[in-house]
Amino acid sequence: MKSGSGKMIRDKSESVWRWAILVLGCLMMVGSYYCFDIPAALKTQIDDYMGDPSDYEISFGLLYTLYSAPNVILPFFGGYLVDRIGVRMCLLLFSSLITLGQVIFSIGLSIKSWPVMFLGRLIFGFGGESFTVANSALLAQWFKGKELAFAFGVNLSISKLGSVVNNLVSPVLADDVSIVFALWFGAILCGFCVGCVLVAMPLDLALENTVRANLAALHGEEHADTKVIGHATTNELHAAVGDGDGDGYGARAAVATTADVDDEPEASLRDVFQLKYIFWILVVSCMVVYGCVLPFNNISSSLLLERDYFKAPPAACAIQNPLYCEGPNNPYTAACPSSEWYQPPLPLNATLSTGETFSPLATSDIDCSKSEWTDNCATSLYCSRQSSAESKASVIMSIPYIISACLSPPLGYTIDLYGFRALIAAVAPAILIVVHALLGLTSVDPVGPLVGQGLAYTGFVSVLWPAVPLVVKERETGLAFGIVTSGQNLATAIIPLISAAIYTDAGDQYCPSVEMLFVGLAAVGFVVGVYLNVYDWGHGHHLNGRWWRVGCAYAMLQMGVITKLEYLKMAQPLEGEPGALALETDEGAADGLLESDKAEAGGVDAAIGGDSDPYRDRIRSRSRSRSHSVSNRSHGGSFTSYEEAMRGGAFRGRAELTTSERDRTASRDRTPSFTIRPSNK
Description:
This protein is mostly helical. The strands form 5 sheets. A two-stranded antiparallel ribbon has the order 1-2. Helix 1 runs antiparallel to helix 7 (114-142), helix 8 (145-176) runs antiparallel to helix 13 and helix 19 (545-558) runs antiparallel to helix 20 (564-571). The protein is built from 23 helices and 10 strands.
């Protein structure tokens, strides 16, 4: 098989079929995201359908706790299973678990059994996070370099649209058809995801066999021994850069030969004790910020109903004659608000078409999912307003998801380019403090705070997951992602139960008590974020990066705190930064590598040491005798000498030695040319 350009395919990333895999990979994630948030979108409807139990908040919280509980442990083994039994079998296994879990959850609601519903969510959790791991590994096999980041970004955005669609569609299905059908529709979507997996499996297998055959033909081997190595974690990454909420937002995978794998030391659980201190700061930050955001999303529909769109009427609001239904001859009293976002007052009693009588009538008696309540004169207006309020709340609660889906890819790219990770990790929880204080203590329109929530969440997940590989060794990356994901799920397993207990103790009210819980978590996240910045400043600026360091150094220079020489020294790219100079050579064209950068007032004098002195002298001689045009794509700069090019490393660039005509000139002149290009690191 050949690629679209007629070139023999030696890697899956060269095939035009990778775009089909991307489409299938995105579609197979939609069902998982859709069903994860079904309880949140139907929180009020489930309460009514289950008979408004007194312990509903605890039971509802358990639906999310039981999803998160297995994923405190599973992330340590998700990558291992992918390596052990292969991506294709893992995709089929985990998508089947997701579908089975949603089916059991739907059956549990149909028979009104909490234990069966809990079992369904537990099984769904066993598949959910690990399915993201396998999906990320699949994309990592088919895409490389910048295409991989693009693929993960598209995958994350489309996956999050599943949550948005759920928030909009599930309440409509519950009102227009039935709440049971709304859950079964989610099961149908999960079945569709299994179908996407079944379509992707033979396509992936066919390309894998083709690549092996092509490599065997090229190298004269019976088989090309290749395998996927890597680790991926969720919700949110789902991505090389990812959210974990079901948001996973971290994956790391590569295709390598067995020889490459053997060169790397094997990771061990003992590496936990070798992880850097700054990594554990990130873990704590992840737990408190995710614990603030995701549990709030679970209850946001009910909170918005209580606070904004289905508010309890004033105590003086009543029907003039409460023994009868409201009507033209029996209006509400003047104390009743005219806004449609208030609950209408109820008469003292109601008799249903089934003959059942409720006296006195309470809001907890009403089940608007049944026609005997929606068609009754005593409760028809109540159910109508509740339906409108639920539809409004479902739209408003989708704002953070929409922002995350739209902004995650470009924001992730921008952060990769400029840094400021630790700074954003502090700003995000600071925004969350304001968001939840406004929701809990004021009556402002919720749109503004939820926009803030969306921006804060998107910014945080865009810096958290990419920061992990920056602070751990490469062989520890999979273990590190597993620990962060486990911490995230531990927080999202515990906080919903704490939230439910506070809600019950506050007399079944979210505001302000539950909101103060989220304010407290955000405050802890802010303190941890500030400490992260302080620690990063004193330990190499790995998270904030060079632009933050240079900006601070410039401000210190203007204030006279440091000298110009100290400023220039601070402005140099550090090793491993996307601006650090790295000298690369083609196969043996030059043996010398960049050994050191000597700081000078005017820039950096890069020396090539070892046995490469002849090449260094020849390069410098040529740079004096003729102009080598060296372009810096990041800054549009042009250099005319070796020294100037190397000094250009103070800006965003990377020096690369190339010898494209080495074979023709080996006997006469092996002087390599060089260019400055942006670093891909």
